[in-house]
């Protein structure tokens, strides 16, 4: 996500942050580089101009240059302004007297149908009872797709056999209401381009279901084109917020950084993959941190929490404190990390780790091998790893299709982790293992 932009900004700001003293020339030079980086990221020209002018004025105007940590302060300034650019204030959905209606709009292929299902799942995890209404009658396959997605996550989907999208939406809503659902997400038709017919139909569907939230789904990978689409929608259908999709494939970030400034509407959600749990609440400040390689520990913690049931968490914590860390625990924590998504994405959220992963292939296959090794141990061996002697190591290696060397490495890694856990349990920050530090 935003890799190209991120690289360039980090390069510029890295130099700036390390500078002992800063003068006006140094700031001007950095601002020129930031300007270029943003333009290359396909951020709207006017947005870039205003942004750079704002940062520059603040950096030169607020006695920052006189301070000892001038570089760091300018970096912080860029961070805060980036966050502001992507939106400040409330990005929450509105909820009213149930059922709360959410109208999903956007062009075909933007990810509207997938996002509808993702949003339903997200809301159910927050304790709501959501349902999906199929009103995309342009593509017959869209209704089947929505039904299929609904089945995958056990969310009811309402379809009506009619060619009138307004009727399909209104009837679907009535039935969902009758079933006692408290949030109804209406998936509407998209076209390849914004056109009058699409806008007319949308306006009629909107008037029929009276949504409390109108969300515009935009494909981040289309950059400025996404912003143009947003402007075109804005003129006809007032939307309340944006869902940016395919951020996982967006190296540049132009849409994310322009859409709020151009339309005045916040980005409410970010979709970061095809899987149904790959929808994140959009936090501008955290996104700014990620772009600048400062990590996003808060999102990481939330992901970890979502991946582990509460009782499991408490149990893990207790065991950690007591310094126990068997291979069963090892396996559990491994699986927890895997449930959080692709490993590289997870690691990148740690402060300072982002850049270091460049060019390094985080080997997901390696993780599968580790799991295979642990699963080839007997329950007793997992509980009491010191039992694992030479012959047992050979057996485990053969059973898991790995080598004795790999088994040995894993045994050493568990020991290392146990030591770290013990230190954590005592409230100390663990020392990094030698191969990771320095
Ligand atoms: P619609 O025509 O707007 O309803 O779009 P769909 O929901 O059918 O999505 C179009 C394609 O984009 C599908 O193949 C989705 O799997 C894919 N897609 C949607 N969201 C994302 C995302 O966040 N990341 C990636 N990589 N693919 C996505």
Automatic annotation (TrEMBL):
This is Signal recognition particle protein. One of its GO terms (biological process) is SRP-dependent cotranslational protein targeting to membrane. GO terms for molecular function: 7S RNA binding; GTP binding; GTPase activity. The keyword Cell division does not apply. PROSITE patterns: SRP54. The gene is ffh. Composed of three domains: the N-terminal N domain, which is responsible for interactions with the ribosome, the central G domain, which binds GTP, and the C-terminal M domain, which binds the RNA and the signal sequence of the RNC. GTP binds at residues 106-113, 187-191, 245-248. Its main location: cytoplasm. Residues 422-438 are annotated as: Disordered. InterPro entries: AAA+_ATPase, P-loop_NTPase, Signal_recog_part_SRP54_M_sf, Signal_recog_particl_SRP54_hlx, Signal_recog_particle_SRP54_M, SRP, SRP54, SRP54_GTPase_dom. Its EC number is 3.6.5.4. Pfam families: SRP54, SRP54_N, SRP_SPB. Belongs to the GTP-binding SRP family. SRP54 subfamily. The keyword Calcium does not apply. It comes from Gaiella occulta. It is found in: Cytoplasm. Residues 266-279 form the SRP54-type proteins GTP-binding domain. GO terms for cellular component: signal recognition particle.
